[in-house]
Amino acid sequence: MTTVPPRHDSPYQSYVYAYPHKTAYRPLPHRPALRDLWAGEAQHALSLYLHIPFCEVRCGFCNLFTRIGSPEGLTTAYLDALERQAGAARAALDEGARFAVAAFGGGTPTYLTAAELERLCDIADRRMGADLRAIPLSVEASPATATADRLEVLAARGTTRLSLGVQSFVDAEARSAVRPQKRAEVEAALGRIRAAGFPVLNIDLIYGIGGQTEASWLHSLDAALAWQPEELYLYPLYVRPLTGLARRGRPEDGPPEGGRQESLSAWDARRLALYRTGRDHLLAHGYEQVSMRMFRRAASPHAGASEYACQTDGMVGLGCGARSYTSRLHYSFDYAVNAAEVRGIIDDYVATDDFRRAEVGHAMTGDEPRRRHLVQSLLQAEGMPLAEYRARFGSSPAEDFPVELAELSARGWLADDPEHLLLTPEGLAHSDAAGPMLFSPEVQALMADYEAK
Ligand SMILES: C[S@@+](CC[C@H](N)C(=O)[O-])C[C@H]1O[C@@H](n2cnc3c(N)ncnc32)[C@H](O)[C@@H]1O
Ligand code: SF4
């Protein structure tokens, strides 16, 4: 089955958190050696990402690379493989390579036991040479897996940001999103996280869930605000191919509501309205907007690295769902959503001895680095400093992408700012439509051609 393209005028085309998306990656015919890929790359402020593809459940909305549970011994075998991959990745870097920021993501990193999390930190610390206690470290967790012993390990090893997936504080909405979870369990987890003393707590919430109303959305937002999280991510619900929600209805139909399929345009309008409600509520409660999804409590510590520049600095991703970025190539392993495919990819990963080559990826040639720069900074609320773009590329976005910018402007999404390329509030609300307009024709074709599995 191919990916169902969203309707052309939907504000929800695609969540652009990285460009190009993994669905534009393809097997690399010559399987380039990591050593060659990293030769000559700036390595003084790298980012390290470790991916843990395990969860206790498979939520109905989720298309991340992850599997439910782990047969006896699989997490140990996975950490063994991570260690081998770390050895190969470290050997491909210069001796003086330094990491400026680190993150453990998933899946659910806290699916691992406390002892396994110690080992994960050791891999980052000792194998890769990332000084976790000296650099920002962000870790994702789910309520049920955020146990006191695991949080204690993470706090002791230097975690500066703990991100908890909550999605909704309303039990009926969690059920509707096929996320088996009770509010009481969420509150208890938040209590344990605050007790562990992480400098930054982030809470993820989702809007557009079947049965969610403006009042119930405000109820979830207020329940989150009661914990005064330093950060909040508000995600519009997406129903993507092969997920539990997509299997329940047609992928392009959105979630069933009271037994009837809501029309896509009505669902779009509902998500846009809930976005505005959420944004205005957080702005009124002392939060600033960082991007369409991200909000930060004013005067709270920044979780990101001050040194690491996501535009130009490299990323080393370890684990079978992780991506790595050099200036010339983005690479990863195979990707899937379907349970059997995911299990097969993880089994292949743990059986791999030789991690010295890149398997699948996308070359950052031609104008791709400029497009990536645009996508990554234009979708930030503060916009893109034009001087930075000129310093890097010797030109302006208007010279390089006149057609794309004219289209954004015609839709009223570009603000008038002499120093920045900046989205208007409406533009920011439509980030998931504005971002894809900047994709290269080649990336668009690859994504359209991608066979979901
Ligand atoms: C890796 S998970 C967070 C940690 C943990 N696995 C959990 O679920 O609690 C990433 C986040 O992406 C968001 N997300 C994932 N798929 C989504 C979808 N289809 N629509 C909206 N948000 C989604 C959810 O808010 C989720 O918390
Ligand atoms: S939302 Fe989180 S817990 Fe649920 S399946 Fe996705 S990664 Fe796992």
UniProtKB/TrEMBL annotation:
Q: Which residues form a coiled coil?
A: none
Name this protein carries in UniProt: Heme chaperone HemW
InterPro entries membership: Aldolase_TIM, Coproporphyrinogen-III_oxidase, Elp3/MiaA/NifB-like_rSAM, HemN_C, rSAM, rSAM_sf
UniProt keyword terms in alphabetical order:
Iron, Iron-sulfur, Metal-binding, S-adenosyl-L-methionine
Q: Which NCBIfam families match?
A: PRK08208.1 (NF006067)
Cellular component aspect of the GO annotation: cytoplasm
Q: What biological-process terms (Gene Ontology) are attached? A: porphyrin-containing compound biosynthetic process
Name the domain of life.
Bacteria
Domain Radical SAM core span(s) in chain numbering: 40-279
What GO molecular function annotations does the UniProt record carry, in alphabetical order? Answer: 4 iron, 4 sulfur cluster binding; catalytic activity; metal ion binding
